[in-house]
From TrEMBL:
Organism of provenance: Lacticaseibacillus saniviri JCM 17471 = DSM 24301
Protein name: Phage Mu protein F like protein
Protein origin, superkingdom: Bacteria
Length: 293
């Protein structure tokens, strides 16, 4: 059986893992920014005059020099070969890159997002897989009647969710670059657009760094929510197998008003227990535990 203290410690451990996942994902945005800066700054300085880059330069047809830059950007990434889900995207980016200088610069930034998304997916998927194993082991260590691997809910594949987030980022940053490229007055201003971080609530336009961090925040939220859903399903499986009839909603540290109110309605018959996250919210780390008198 599970004591309140055991559950509390487990929740705290999961929250610590959530933070570690976020840190790993955010680090990948830094790598993407380094790639973007190293490939786009030469472009900028190549074309910029004292007034920055003009609209007609942004719209200009690509030159032989531009194509060499694109090739160098591609070569840096393709060492490991493209995954099937990357192949079509790289082809599409290559076509866009041939349209104009502005589109080529956008396509190079998009390549960085492609690589970042690939790395994000590795981190997210490894985390969700290990959470599933850990919860399975924990339930079987705590309860007499063991659940089997065959009974587990299907493993979660985050590929589609993560790539959807990546595709949205690619659309956003491409649009922002083409729109804003002719508006910078110096290389420093362009560099600032790439790497500065805008504090939340600031009215400043979002930087490239902000847009990349918004992708990793979304992926961290998906991981946390899917991990909580998986935990809930494995818990309920173990409780039912061990004839638990009544359950409580054990709230996470710093619980929100919604979950606090829901928890106060307990204990619940197991079949009427709140469903996490459907009855709570995304990012919820509250959990269902067996009820004791
Ligand atoms: Zn909650």
């Amino acid at each position: 059986m599970i004591t309140d203290q055991q559950e509390q410690q487990w929740i705290e451990q999961l929250i610590a893992s959530d933070k570690a996942t976020s840190t790993k994902l955010d680090k990948q945005t830094k790598e993407a920014l380094i790639y973007i800066s190293s490939h786009l700054l030469p472009f900028y300085t190549h074309y910029a005059t004292d007034e920055g880059i003009s609209v007609s330069q942004v719209m200009q047809k690509v030159s032989k020099w531009d194509i060499q830059q694109w090739q160098a950007a591609i070569d840096e990434l393709k060492e490991d070969g493209w995954l099937p889900e990357e192949d079509a995207r790289v082809t599409a980016m290559g076509k866009l890159a041939g349209v104009s200088v502005g589109m080529m610069m956008s396509a190079i930034a998009s390549l960085a997002v492609l690589k970042m998304t690939r790395e994000n997916l590795k981190v997210a998927q490894a985390r969700i897989n290990s959470d599933r194993d850990a919860e399975f082991d924990r339930m079987n260590a705590l309860f007499d009647k063991k659940i089997t691997r065959d009974e587990l809910p299907p493993a979660i594949n985050l590929m589609n969710d993560v790539w959807l987030t990546g595709d949205r980022t690619i659309m956003t940053i491409s649009g922002e670059l083409v729109k804003r490229l002719s508006g910078f007055n110096s290389t420093e201003e362009f560099q600032d657009f790439l790497s500065s971080q805008t504090s939340s609530g600031s009215s400043r336009k979002k930087s490239m760094s902000d847009l990349l961090l918004s992708q990793t925040a979304t992926i961290a939220m998906i991981v946390r929510t899917q991990s909580a859903k998986m935990k809930f399903e494995i818990n309920m499986l173990a409780y039912r197998k061990n004839d638990v009839e009544m359950v409580d909603l054990h709230t996470e540290p710093g619980v929100c008003a919604r979950c606090a109110a829901l928890s106060a309605q307990g204990p619940f018959m197991i079949d009427a227990a709140p469903n996490i996250p459907e009855d709570t919210h995304r990012n919820c780390r509250c959990s269902i535990v067996p009820h004791f008198e």
